[in-house]
Amino acid sequence: MAIGLIMEFDAPEGDVMALYDQANIDMRTHEDHPEGLIFHWGAKSPKGLRVVDVWESKAHFDRFFRERLGPTSVKLNLPRPTVEEYEIHAILKAPSLANT
Predict the structure, then answer these.
(1) DSSP state, 56?
(2) Per-residue confidence at 96, pLDDT binned at 50, 70, 90?
């Protein structure tokens, strides 16, 4: 079952979006799309950084965390986020996103 995650990071001082960009570079997310990731966005938030993901399953996210996000978080000294997890009932895509 698909899951949705909302992660809120209390950001350290400095350019939080530069840190987000560096994390994605280190995880190679643009060159090597994470298996099972359906949708992702990240944005500056009042607390620092908000990331929203939709994954095919919890197992897919757990593997991504174990292999990429966890080690990158340690390397970049990212704070532990607060996480809300949801079982996704339905996903609707705009026609322009149907093949993405």
Answers:
(1) S
(2) confident
The secondary structure of 27-67 as a DSSP string is: HTTTTSPPTTEEEEEEEEETTEEEEEEEES-HHHHHHHIII
What is the CATH classification number for the domain harbouring 32? 3.30.70.100
Number of structural domains (the chain) is 1
Question: Which residue has tokens 């965390």?
Answer: 65
Q: Name the nearest CA neighbour of 11 among 71, 77, 58, 72.
A: 77
- Does residue 83 come out as left (phi exceeding 0), alpha (psi in the -120 to 50 range) or beta? beta
- What mean pLDDT, rounded, does the chain reach? 92
Domain that holds residue 60: 3-97
- Name the nearest CA neighbour of 16 among 39, 43, 36, 56: 43
Which tens digits make up the pLDDT trace of 8-51? 998 767 788 999 999 999 999 999 999 999 999 999 999 899 99
